[in-house]
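Researcher: Quick test of sequence recovery. Tokens follow.
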């Protein structure tokens, strides 16, 4: 209780007096929310993993339509698009010499296949992506490249931006230098013997090669082997398949506003997930949080602006759902966008990008969030992959930043399951989103950033 009092006292009296009573009441009632848990539990139990462009993702879209209609949303529909499918296969990594042992590996999305017989080659190691970029092709050609790093946990998740490129682009760099394959230290901060997956990307014209991620303990072990100065050889077997053009899609629902001439608010998260866990924190919780908040606004009476909720498809493959949405709706007027896609831990910071017209709205939201233990931060709010194209076109950005200290212990792993979600933290998220939407959706002010 002391924490709440201190935070509230830090809010200027004028702003605190301007807090809409309805918004405060909605915020407080959302701390008892059960809708977000119901969505998260239902999606992870009844559908499970939802790899893009697979039958499982299709079932998830149908499940989403049924659930959104049952919750009372309007204009619920699937907006399909086509993408190239990819599915994983057999995954094995074994040190042949000088210290024979099995390692835990998983293929990165977009990896090529080694063939069923695998490949055996000497490993060449690099401590960073920059070190690999600086290597001569003679060092790399015909070998299995191994790249490691020292990612550490941070509250804002900034380590992902620093070390993520090893996964995103490392395979393309290795292929251009003639590597037979690449393996990386999983982009994660845990020390469990499980691999973290995610997409890798090959530049146009670059031949895809087999690409995998080792569990953090196995990567550390391999690094120690290389440090002994002896040649290290690995047999690597990865047999994913490209399945050709397949259907994905976005699921769209709306809370119609009283004034359809006002630019809308776009919120949501992504419906697809990687295929090792059940996608609870990434991103069943995110779509559940934003949907539950929108439902609370809807149930309290029709807002001034339309709120559009989108459960995006194929985010994990590079934001393909975002591209499809912008192609279909980029010409429509969007005032504000926001996405929840950073797990389900408590929100600790609020940021908002708007022009001068949104300053009052921003102050009111900040004041409403303070009693939830949320501070107003400085700098730019991050739009999130799914809503970024609309933000780049000029919409304002609502940023409600979750604590990411433990996020990369679970991110893209078999451990991304429902039991990792704290229901109380989930409700705090819903309360924060509800408070922000209650103010923004009933404001006639210009919330756009450009």
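Model:
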């Amino acid at each position: 209780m002391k924490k709440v009092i201190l935070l509230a006292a830090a809010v200027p009296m004028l702003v605190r007096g301007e807090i809409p009573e309805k918004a405060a009441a909605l915020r407080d009632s959302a701390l008892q929310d059960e809708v977000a848990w119901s969505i998260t539990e239902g999606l992870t139990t009844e559908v499970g993993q939802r790899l893009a462009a697979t039958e499982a993702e299709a079932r998830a879209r149908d499940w989403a339509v049924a659930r959104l209609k049952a919750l009372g949303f309007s204009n619920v529909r699937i907006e399909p698009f086509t993408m190239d499918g990819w599915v994983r296969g057999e995954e094995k990594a074994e040190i042949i010499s000088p210290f024979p042992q099995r390692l835990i590996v998983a293929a990165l999305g977009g990896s090529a296949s080694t063939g069923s017989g695998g490949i055996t080659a000497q490993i060449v190691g690099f401590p960073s992506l920059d070190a690999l970029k600086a290597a001569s092709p003679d060092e790399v050609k015909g070998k299995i490249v191994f790249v490691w790093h020292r990612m550490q946990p941070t509250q804002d998740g900034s380590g992902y931006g620093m070390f993520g490129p090893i996964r995103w682009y490392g395979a393309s760099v290795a292929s251009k230098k003639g590597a037979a394959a690449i393996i990386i230290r999983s982009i994660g901060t845990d020390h469990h013997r499980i691999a973290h997956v995610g997409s890798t990307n090959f530049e146009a014209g670059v031949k895809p090669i087999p690409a995998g991620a080792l569990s953090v303990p196995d990567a550390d072990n391999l690094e120690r082997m290389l440090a002994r100065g002896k040649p290290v050889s690995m047999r690597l077997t990865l047999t994913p398949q490209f399945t050709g053009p397949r259907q994905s899609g976005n699921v769209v629902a709306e809370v119609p506003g009283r004034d359809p001439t006002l630019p809308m608010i776009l919120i949501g998260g992504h419906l697809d997930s990687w295929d090792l866990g059940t996608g609870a924190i990434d991103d069943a919780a995110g779509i559940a949080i934003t949907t539950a908040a929108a439902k609370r606004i809807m149930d309290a009476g029709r807002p001034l602006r339309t709120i559009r909720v989108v459960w995006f498809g194929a985010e994990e493959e590079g934001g393909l759902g975002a591209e499809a949405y912008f192609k279909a709706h980029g010409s429509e007027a969007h005032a504000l966008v926001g996405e929840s896609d950073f797990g389900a831990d408590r929100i600790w910071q609020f940021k908002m990008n708007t022009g001068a017209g949104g300053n009052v709205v921003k102050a009111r939201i900040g004041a409403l969030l303070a009693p939830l233990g949320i501070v107003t931060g400085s700098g730019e709010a991050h739009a999130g992959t799914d809503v970024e194209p609309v933000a780049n076109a000029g919409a304002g950005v609502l940023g409600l930043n979750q604590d990411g200290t433990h996020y990369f212990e679970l991110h893209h792993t078999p451990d991304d399951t429902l039991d990792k979600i704290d229901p109380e933290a989930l409700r705090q998220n819903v309360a924060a989103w509800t408070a922000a939407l209650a103010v923004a959706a009933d404001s006639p002010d210009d919330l756009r950033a450009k």
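The mean pLDDT is 95.
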